[in-house]
Amino acid sequence: MEEISKHFLNNNRRHFLKKLSLGIGGLAAASMLDPFSAIVEAPDSPLKGMNLPHFAPKAKRVIYLFQSGGPSQLELFDYKPLLDKMRGQDLPDSVRKGQRLTGMTSGQDSFPLVGSNFTFNQYGESRAWVSDLMPYTAKIVDELCFVKSMHTEAINHDPAITFFQTGSQQAGRPSIGSWMSYGLGSLNDNLPTFTVLLSRGTGRPLAQPLYSRLWGNGFLSSLHQGVQFRSGKDPVLYLKDPEGMNRSERRKMLDHIAELNEKQEKEFGDPEINSRIAQYEMAYRMQTSVPDTMDIEGEPDHIIQMYGAEATVPGTYAANCLLARRLVEKDVRFVQLYHMGWDQHENLPTQIEKQAKDIDQATAALIMDLKQRGLLEDTLVVWGGEFGRTNYSQGTLTETNYGRDHHPKCFTMFMAGGGVKPGFTYGETDDFGYNIVKDPVHVHDLQATMMHLMGVDHTKFTYKHQGRRFRLTDVSGHVVHDLIS
Fold first, then answer.
1. Rounded to the nearest 10 degrees, what angle do helices 271-294 and 247-268 cross at?
2. 87-133 pLDDT, tens per residue?
3. 3-state secondary structure (DSSP) of residue 442
4. Cα–Cα dist 218/81, whole Å
5. Which of 26, 317, 322, 475 has its CA 20 to 30 A from that of 66?
6. Are 62 and 335 contacting, i.e. CB atoms less than 8 angstroms apart?
7. CATH 3.40.720 intervals, the chain
8. Going along 95-175, which residue ranges are E strands?
9. Tens-digit pLDDT profile for residues 86-100
10. Are 175 and 216 spatial neighbours (Cβ–Cβ below 8 Å)?
C-alpha cells in the first residue's frame, strides 16, 4: 500500500497530463489533423526524433567546418583593392560610424587601413574571388555558395562562438547539432547522431581552447549531446570494456542495469532514465562501429592523396575531414569539426598562410569526395567562423606585417551541397570591407536556412522549458531563399 501511495505521489497532476498528451490516441489525432505539424514541444523519444520533417528536406546530413578564431575575409575571399590604394591612411569616421571596437584596439591613436598581402584572382564560371592562400578551394568555386554579408552582434570569441553554435550568446542552450538530433532523430543504429572532431591549427597553435558546452545538449535530453571523437588510442572515452570483462559479460550487465532503470522509470516517469538506457546501448554498439569508422587503412591511396599527407595523422584537420566523410557515409546526421587558430591579432601574414594551408586542400577534397560518392546532393557542408577581421591594422603596420582585430559587422562564409546554389555569391560589402551594402545575413538567418534545408520550419521547432518555448533562432531569423537551389 505504501508503494502504491509513493507511486501516485510521484505522478502528480502536471506529470500525469504531460504523459497523457503523449498517448497513442493523441499522436494518432495529431497525425490525422496535420501529419507535418507534430507536437515538437513534447519530451523526446530516445532514438527516433520528434517527428517527420515539416516538409521535404533537401539535406539529410550536415558537416559544419567551424573555423574558430575568426578567419580574415580580407585575406581569403573579400577582395578590396581600395585598401591597397589607401594603405596606411586612417579609417574614415564616415565609414566607421562610431561602431564599437574591442578593448584591444579602441585605444589606438589611429586605425591605418591595410589591404591583403596576398594576390586575388577570379576563378570558375562563377568568377568568384579567391586569394592565392586557397589554391585548392579556388578550383572548386563552382561548387560553392559564398555568403559575403554575414554579421553578428557578438564582438568577442566566447559569446560569438556560443551564438553560432546555440543561437544565444549566453551559455546553456542546446547546440545546433543537438537540436537536429532531437528534432530529426538518427539515421543509423550504431553511431551517435551528433559527433564532434577537434583540430588545432599551425597558424596560432596556442590559440584559445574550445569547451564541451559548445556541443552540449542544454535543456534537451542528454542523449542529444555531441559525442567527441578524439585522436588518441581511445577515440571515445570509457567505451572499452573494463579490464577482466568480456563482451558477453558486459551484455549481461547492461541487461540487468536496464531492468533496474526500467523499474525506476515506471516509478518516477523521468525521461532522462530512458535516455540513460539508450546511451548504454549505443555505447555497446559503438564498441564495434567506432574502431571500424576510425580505421582508414582501407582508404585507397588516391583518396589519401586528395586530402593531403596529413590525412594519415590523427587529430589534424585533414584527418578529421576524411573521418567526416566516413561518418556521413555511415549516416551520422550532424558532424561538427572545429579548427582552432584563426585569431590573428598580430603577425597575420605569416600566421594565416599556415592556417590556410591546414584547411585548403582537405576542405576541397571533402566536398569533391562527397560529390563523387553521390553524397554531396543531400549533405550540407558549411564553412566559416564566428566573425571577421577589421580592415585596419591592429598594432604597428609595416610593409610586411600587420594584424587585424575582431570585426562582427561583415564577414564571409561558404556552403556546398545539400540544396544550396552552387557557383553563387550572395551579399556585398562596401569598398572598405567594413559595412554591408547589400543582402545582409544574420547568424539567426543562417541557422534558419540550415534548418529549412533539413526540412524544418525554424519558427515551429520549439521546446518548452521552464515555462517558455525556446527555439534555436530565438525570436528572429529568416530563411534566405535566394541561397537555395
1. 150
2. 999 999 999 999 999 999 999 999 999 999 999 999 999 999 999 99
3. strand
4. 44
5. 475
6. yes
7. 43-238+297-483
8. 120-123, 128-131, 144-151
9. 999 999 999 999 999
10. yes
Q: Which residue has the cell 597575420?
A: 348
Q: Could you give the angle at the alpha carbon of 23 between the alpha carbons of 22 and 27, nearest 5°?
A: 75
Instruction: State how far the Cα of 172 lies from the Cα of 267, in Å rounded to an integer.
Output: 29
Q: How many residues does the chain have?
A: 485
As given in the structure block, the three cell numbers for residue 308 are 593531403
d(CA 393, CA 111): 6
Amino acid in position 299: E
Q: Which amino acid is at 283?
A: A
Half-sphere exposure of 169 (CA within 13 A, CB side): 10
Report which of 235, 236, 218, 216 is spatially closest to residue 226, judged by C-alpha positions: 216
pLDDT at residue number 38: 34
Q: Are 470 and 463 in contact (CB under 8 A)?
A: yes
Give CA torsion, residues 333, 339, 344, 347, to 10 deg: -150
Q: Looking at the DSSP assignment, which residues form a beta bridge with residue 472?
A: none
> What are the percentages of helix, strand and coil residues in the chain, rounded to 5?
40, 15, 45
The answer to whether 186 touches 178, Cβ cutoff 8 Å, is no
- CATH number, domain 43-238+297-483, options 3.30.70, 2.40.50, 3.40.720, 1.20.58: 3.40.720
pLDDT of the residue at 252: 65
The answer to whether the CB of 390 falls within 8 A of the CB of 404 is yes
